[in-house]
Amino acid sequence: MEQATPSEPAPVQKRWMDRIVKNSVKNDKIEGSDLIGELAALVLMSAALWFFVAHKVNETGFYTEEFGGMEMFALYSAGAFTVFTAAVRIALRRHNIVRPLETASFVLLSIAHAVLLARFPFDFDHVADVLPGALEWTVGWISETIGKVILALGIPGGIIAAAITMMIYFGVKKELSAVQEPPPTPSEDDSDA
């Protein structure tokens, strides 16, 4: 007869991810205050996208001559895709079904950050130029150094966020499919035992 071996504790990251997955399963539906939070996030993301588009449309001087087609595409496509992802999450009122889109958004943001950091086509003396005078203080303090740090941190940050988001997606998908599947019925062989 085979002896039972004591089970070893799960690695820390597995326990950490298990807690995140359980919490994500419990909160997969977007309702009430979560919906208000999602709507607020969508408004803020849309405002950020408007901010960068307004600099281009108004030719404020924030973008330098190095801000060419590739940089424009990187910045605006990543921003637009992030807004689109948030809108889909709100429309479907579910988190997990949208996580693959969120993953793609994080990857696009990482790529955009890398492209923009490589060329750094910005003049931060003009960063607040599209805002009304009373709001210039909200971004006027951001220097070129801070802008570069934000872009540099966004590259690994987006990749890490993409990896974690997909881990959560597969964990939640597994948990939700286990809940939806009926328990297996005993087979004829099991009843003989």
Give the secondary structure arrangement, pairings included:
Layout: H1 12-26, H2 32-57, H3 69-92, H4 99-119, H5 137-140, H6 144-180, H7 188-192
Helix pairs in contact: 1-6, 2-3, 3-4, 4-6
Explained architecture:
- The structure is a single chain.
- By secondary structure, the protein is mostly helical.
- The protein has helices at residues 12-26, 32-57, 69-92, 99-119, 137-140, 144-180, 188-192.
- It contains seven helices and no strands.
Global morphology:
elongated
Instruction: Please identify the structural class as seen in this structure.
Output: mainly alpha
Q: Could you estimate the helical fraction of the residues in percent?
A: 55-70%
Order of helices and strands: HHHHHHH
Task: Considering the chains and any ligands shown, give keywords for the structure.
single chain; 0% strand; mainly alpha; 193 residues; elongated; 68% helix
Write a brief caption for the model.
The chain is mainly α and 193 residues long.
